[in-house]
Amino acid sequence: MTQSSSHAIGEIQSGSHRLQAMLDIPPDFVELLPVAAYACDASGRVLWFNKRAVDLWGRAPRIGDDTELFCGSYKLYFGGQEINRAETPMAVALRTGEAIQGAEGMVERPDGSQIWATVHIEPVKDTMGRVLGAINCFHDTTELHQARAKTMEGEERVRGILEAMPTAVYTTDAVGRITYYNEAAAKLAGREPTLGSDEWCVTWKLYWPDGTPLPHDQCPMALALKEQRPNSGMEAVAERPDRTRVPFLPYPTPLFDASGRLTGAVNVLVDITDRKRTERLQQELALSDANLAAELEATRKLQEIGAELIHEQDVHALYQKLVDAAAMIMRSEYASMQMFYPDRGSGGELRLLAFRGFNAQAAKFWEWVRIESESTCGVALRTRKRVIVEDVSRSDFMAGTEDLETYLQTGIHAVQTTPLLSRRGQLLGMISTHWNRPHRPADSELRLLDLLARQAADLLERASAEERLRDSEEQLRLATEAADVGLWDVDPVNDRLFWPARVKAMFGISGEAAVSMADFYAGLHLEDRERTSAAFAAALDPAKRALYDVEYRTIGKEDGVTRWVAAKGRGVFNAGGTCIRVIGTALDITERKRREDHQKLLLNELNHRVKNTLVTVQSMAMQTLRNSPDKMQAQKLIEARLIALSKAHDMLTQENWEGAFLHQIIGKAIAPYRGQLRDRFEGDGPNVWVSPKFALALAMGLHELCTNAVKYGGLSNEAGKVRIEWTVAGLNGTRELSIRWSEMDGPSVKPPSRQGFGSRLIERGLKQDLGGEVRIDFDPAGVICTIKAPLERARGRAEG
After folding, report:
1. Are 437 and 309 members of one domain?
2. Pair type for strands 782-791 and 734-744
3. Beta bridge mates, 730
4. pTM higher than 0.85 for the full model?
5. How many whole angstroms separate alpha carbon 760 and alpha carbon 365?
6. Which domain holds residue 417?
7. Is residue 796 part of a domain?
8. pLDDT tens profile 254-299
9. DSSP string, 155-168
10. For 121-239, where are the alpha helices, taking DSSP H only?
């Protein structure tokens, strides 16, 4: 240890002893102190401290260390800010020589914990007044600080509640000075009171309910403070600086501390303006007990009707209840209600819906009221305003009219008619009341009638809207059923799909099955899926907003049937441009597509047949003319052959050109010859269906055979006849038709010297058209023609 260090320590010890000596405190006595204590010399070096100080600091400072001057705290905070050692209260006291009492700061310990402490520092001076050092006694006030903070927090919470309250609240001190008021109190008073100056009440002026001035020092709050007891139920009136007055009820309550000492009072002021207004209204209503009872009953009736309007489904019963209620409210013997039909007549007409007291003649007369009518209803219809006639016999516009005569015959002498208007001002109808004496309805009755008229108008508007909706829905239903159209609705935002049973059937799905957009896409024919999906996407696109108009095929989910569907729809977009709904129709066009395909087939077939027919006619004409030297004979032959061809066409047309039965073809061919030659034909064979080509060829062949038989063969005399037989034989899955034409009992037959067109038509034409064999034998007993040809399988026809 150096000499200077020894000297410094000696000085410290000497100063400590002098300080200890001046305080006359034994060294061990400081441990007995009930508070934390330590002492510093004039330079701020710590001379001594007790254990309580160590406990509060959380550490033990080094005695006499120049690096730990003024305080033993790890960190020290005052006013919420950390301070250095030179700014500590001890440093200030040593510097100024002034005592510091009750300064509160926060001590932070080395472990990070913090406490609140209150310090009391007393400088120690020598006889010359020089500061030798100071002693600091401090104690832990953490709990007190926390309690104070909670108290302040509670006060702020209470203050916030009071400010949020709609009721006026203010407080005073014990002598009546205003210490606090909330916004509602300032609003009630119409002024901002001066805190600490204004006394007893926040109001500008006070009055008793009878208007007598009420001095502030005699107000309920003043009495509560003076008498130290709550004082409630004393009504008063506050006058604001703007001269408006507010009736209120004060509820002053004195406040006391724990020792029972008066500390102030709180007063709650309840604005009773609405209550006073209600009381005045009740007083006005109470002026006439009879009117009050009637109006209350009328109000009850209106409430009942209002409830029935919601639940009652029988609108005609409601009409009658409204009429009865009108008669009760207006104390009338008669009442009626009408609906306006704007499309009838030149200016619309009123139809009687319900009435009370009318006889049959009056009800018939006023069943329909035109705009030119001179009744109160007619005038109200023209003016759209209420019409009151106190005495119909003295009414100028009724004089000499049928309406006046009907009024008087019915016993009506006074009338009022009130238009029923929608909430948008549109005329819906009329409600009228009638009296059997001259009468002027009271304003209070008319006010109640207006309430009833509002309900009646709402009912008419609802009934009209429901009727229009029913008509619209029925028209839509009939239209969709008649057109076999199905409606569909898609919610693309939530991926929801609504299909009625008709649309589900188009996708082969049962009516009760649930469906989704996945069912729609899965049900599309693979070849149509991409095209249909693109059309639907264009309808959803806000930039395109295209009409969804597409035809596609579906494959039934449950039945596997292929169907054609024509669909149309339109997207619904919100303000942001998002498609929120797509609504449209679907029509099963399977049958139309089948007809279109069939029509194309028929057109192609017709084109083919016309060409073939023209070739046949051309060939027939050329051959006939070539083999007939006589033009008149050729003309007759051509005409007969054309007729035969035409009859064959007629027969096929009746069968939609699908074919014909063999017996029909034979019957048509021989029909012209049965009438003039009696029935000299015999026929026998099964029921066989043949193709159109077969039928035409065979009809022409039979025509030629009949013509030759009449001219030269079995039908050229009186005894001859013809037998036609046909059979069908099957072999290796094919069928062959054999037809045998046999003439008998006619003239002896010789082979012709040359073969004419008819014979060539039979042998060559039939063979070519039928794809079989045709042979004519000129047997002396009669011509025999044998036809053999393969037979196509019957299509959709029963043979037997």
Report:
1. yes
2. antiparallel
3. 735
4. no
5. 93
6. 289-468
7. no
8. 999 989 999 999 999 999 999 888 888 887 776 555 555 656 676 6
9. HHHHHHHHHH-SSE
10. 142-164, 183-189, 220-227
